[in-house]
Design goal:
Layout (H helix, E strand, L loop, with lengths): L8 H8 L2 E2 L3 E6 L3 H12 L4 E5 L5 H5 L2 H19 L14 H15 L5 H7 L2 E4 L2 E5 L2 E4 L2 E10 L3 E3 L12 E2 L13 E5 L3 H12 L3 E5 L11 H13 L3 E3 L2 E7 L6 E6 L4 E5 L2 E4 L3 E3 L30 E3 L10 H17 L14 E3 L5 E5 L10 E6 L4 H6 L5 E6 L5 E7 L3 H13 L4 H6 L9 H14 L2 H22 L1
Parallel strand pairs: 1-7, 2-3, 2-7, 3-4, 7-18, 9-16, 10-11, 10-16, 11-12
Antiparallel strand pairs: 5-6, 6-7, 8-17, 13-14, 14-15, 19-20, 20-23, 21-22, 22-23
Helix pairs in contact: 2-9, 4-5, 4-7
Amino acid sequence: MQPTSPDTPNAHTKASVAKRVPRQDLVVVGAGAAGLSAASIASRIGARITLIETNRMGGDCLYTGCIPSKALLRAAACAQNARESRRFGIHLSEPVIDFAGVHEHIRRAIAAIEPEDSAERYRILGARVIPGSATLIDRHTIRVGRETIPTRSIVLATGARPIVPTLPGLAGARFVTSETVWELKDCPKHLLVLGGGPVGCELGQAFARLGSRVTLIESGSRILPQEPKTAAELLELALRKEGVNLLTETRALRIEGSDPHAKLVVSHTDGSQASIDFDILLIAVGREPRTHGFESLNLLRKAGGLLATNDYLETSQPGIYAAGDVTSALQFTHVAGQQGAYAALNALFRPLIRLRWNQSPIPRVTYTSPEIASVSRTGTRLSAVAKTITIPLREVNRAVTDGAENGCALIGINKKGCLESATLIMPHAGEIISELALAIQERLPLGRILALIHPYPTYSEINRRAASVWREERMSGLGRQLIRVMLALLRRLGKGHSG
């Protein structure tokens, strides 16, 4: 019998048959922060796992989110430091911005971190890594191209994408989002930012520092609506001082004209309208979950289209779990990574082990200048905060030496003197907030922070300063009177001894 040639119908039929692989313990869809965390822990404990990614390993955080944005902010801070150096007796001319050089700095940062998230690394850990778009056939079967993968459990970690509003005339304008802004080859002459949340504020300030004329539009009464009003006001002052044209209570109506002569028509609360010209429109009005590939399973959703899960991150379909931005309203890399680990362990060991998703306090940071970091007890109501202690940054000696006194700490405590919430508006706020997050998680009274010796002079002293104020205010009139009596008695005893 002659062997079948590759061109015969029989061979073609065999090649068209979907390839099947051994049944997996777990299939993870998405290789961003949540998916990589899930795949890592599953591989390390010896599970049979497949990781599927339709785009690049590392996801938004590595290529369009955390890493490039913080690299951009660092470059922008260098330019601003040069402008402000005369305050310290250093006189420099206006910095020359090499936008290509800024891009190269961003590229180097990404390249240095890429190996940590690479397919090669995860294959070494023991995972099957498959590039391609996943389609869920049922809760135990996934198809990628011609390959059909049977599995016991699934973790969906497909992330989210920027929302692009249905704004009339948008198609004729040049616009970018947090995903595509990194494709700009030149620094915009006039950048119009739509949205006053963390992304809009961070990128708006960065481009202003790099030489763009920036207008930032927010439909609400203030920027950063999720943060305390004091934090928003201090940042607004900083943005305006650096030349950002900040328009609150302003709604985008439509775009007239087309690139390069496009204008955004906006309305104000008094009903008046205005036109704003721009080179680039940066849309930063929120994010929506990526759900392509599993629509047919009719998984339950919650507000904003996020996948609904129970306390163990399991969706409405048993055996299918979700982690990260596809399910969480708190769209932070540190939340996604933690959820990925919980989801993987629950998916692998159900029904023997069930780990309730950690309800620990979750810090958040807006990386503007001033930096803003906040944390609160999960589910904390305003009524639980009996008092808010405010410590101006000018009372911290390190801030004085740095010329960075415009900021403060807002420390919310309950009736027992335990922390319920905290907001830091100051340099390095994100580095310092963890101490307060731990105090909230462990229900520690401020006295424990007061007892901890903090290095001097550092910004972290602001936490101890808040604890000191609490202790002074906590001392009752009776306690102060008792101390005075004790001191008077000791003085008399001292006189008798000296005689």
